[in-house]
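hey so i finally got around to running the thing on that chain from the lab meeting. sorry it took forever, my laptop kept dying and i had to restart like 3 times. anyway pasting the input first so we r on the same page abt which one it is
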Amino acid sequence: MQAAGQIPLMTATPAAPGAPDQMAVPVAGSQMTRQARRLYVGNIPFGVTEDAMMEFFNNQMRVAGLAQAPGDPILAVQINLDKNFAFLEFRSVDETSQALAFDGINFMNQSLKIRRPSDYKPLPGASDQPAVHLPGVVSTVVADSQHKIFIGGLPNYLNEDQVKELLVSFGPLRAFNLVKDSATGLSKGYAFAEYADYTVTDQAIAGLNGMQLADKKLIVQRASVGAKNNPHGAMMAPVTLQVPGLLQAAGSGPATSVLCLMNMITVDELKDDEEYEDILEDVKDECSKLGKLVSLEIPRPRPGVPDGEGIGKIYVEFASHIDCQKAANALSGRKFSNRVVVTSFYDPEAYHHRRFQ
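ok and heres what got predicted. didnt touch it at all, straight out
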């Protein structure tokens, strides 16, 4: 079977007396409409059978109210096990178009990709977009519109679920696509998305644009319009955005008397004497409110010292591990200059010997 997905031609058979007239929906078996009645299904579960796929999609069509007549909307399924995809053949052109709404649906713990076949040629007047959005189904195709947003500056190690987790903090998604390198399958560091509720789009852009994630700063804007970055601010209240696998838990590791603050400062800020002093004072004032502060170290770049030796981190020593734990709970997940603060406990002996890492 080629990528176009040839399925043996289905021909209509007369319905038995009293049986539902499946041919009431035009036009099963018509050679003229075959190209418009097939859909490609990618990322199918390993070992799935044609019968299982047919039962699943016929059931979903009925449950979603997309079946336009009694009987099964899908006439045939053909699976290519070697290349992990399948083709569905529907009884009508309209039902085929409606089934595009299932793009991104979860089947046996796999998110399916549903597309037109490569040999598809639209019929005159036919729609290539589903007329409905199914709740809970996030399409993998983000159609061009004023509601389409661009998310750039993503760390390459974030997977689709982690990026979606970041976005759904503002509302459910209608469509999402993390762009990947076709050769390696790795993220290219940007994505497109559309919210199910268009009214939250501006709120999401304002909340995410300019946010610092690891060593990257997010660029979030309408794909066709653009938006301005949020202004930088001082340390703010904790944010609710939590990306699984990215942010450490508050005070990661067993509690000690030394807290390491990460993702708060940049090397350029450390090189500027005035900015360095401002950061030092801000951190000292904030941490003094959370416990008895003993000492504070912010390593700065200097000739002969590699950037990796604590550069970009802040080390805070408290009088007790209890105060340190309280500070970790209070600071983890807060924002400082638009960056989400990450905390971890640090070895006091290494700190006292100035072994920063």
